[in-house]
Amino acid sequence: MTTQTEKMYRTLVKLTHAQEIHRERKREALLKDLGNYTLTQLHILGCIQQHDAVNNKVLSDALALTKAAVSKAVNKLLKDELITTYQIEDNQKSIFYQLTKEGEHIADIHHVLHEQAKANYLNFLATMDDETLAKAQLFLEALTNYLEE
User: Where is the HTH marR-type domain (predicted)?
Assistant: First the structure.
């Protein structure tokens, strides 16, 4: 391994550790503000909030989740009365979801937290020049493809 390769490896390990710490802090904040819900459950609430006629297939496609993962998350949200079900008159086969008032409240908080995180990332990225960002983009895309294999 070259010295640069070893330095990059150490940086990736450090990044992974920093991400774990960041996720844990974020989870603690989420627990405080949003209760004990998973990110999947929160993203489902957001998806229902943003779209009409949301069913398991829509959720699975929009969030890139298995149908089993969607069903598990939806069942918890139904049990906790954050969402309810309904059917469309001309489609009695499909079950659709809508938010309750409490579900709407939690989805709103989650949306605000997402916007804050986005703003923080964009502020950080704005400190980089375009050439650095382009190289970083290529690297991150290659790493993501490698990890998805």
Answer: 5-148
